[in-house]
Task: structure prediction
Amino acid sequence: MIFNSNARESSLIFRTSFLVSIALLLFGGGQIAHANSVSAQKIVVLGDSLVAGYGLDPGDGFPEQMAKSLALKHQNLEIINAGVSGDTSSGGLSRIDWSVPDEIDGVILELGANDALRGIAPELTKKNLEKMIIRLQKRNIEVLLVGMRAPPNMGKPYEDEFNAIYSDLAKKYKLILYPFFLEGVVAKPELNQADAMHPTAEGVGVIVERFLPVMEVFLRRISGD
Result:
């Protein structure tokens, strides 16, 4: 008798649990499944000290401030800082495979400033950037190309050849282009650190504000909208 009573009780518990599980699937499971099905968009910012956050407190760099600006509207967005201070286009090319892991949806490619400062031949900078773009596109990763400008002291021929790199590549590979990363900040002492090259946290805020419309276009392209 004790055995049968226990058996009936176990059977009742099992049936009750089963019905509760079905109810959860019918009434609550849809929401759970929907939440789990919305995966985060992952974007890598591949660049140099301008995005690495050189001289800034943690959280004040470009990727971090951009993520904060987009957090309310794009809750499933993850922006990964892959900036390395002093990096050239050659350095970016050498590390692109491990700096941009699998399951990345887009890359903001910001490199070339150190090439210009070192007087590296613009044709080499262009080849390196082009190789990175081709590799990323072969992996079905969208690219937002960020332009840079050569310093005037490099001479007009160098300046013209270097500055044309980004628009040429954007046109050839149908990329979204942000023409000049330091637009609105360059040559403004109040928005730059003591070296007059790297923006302060406030300067980065200005860059982010100007960058946001292009970023929204980029996110729509990634989403296929």
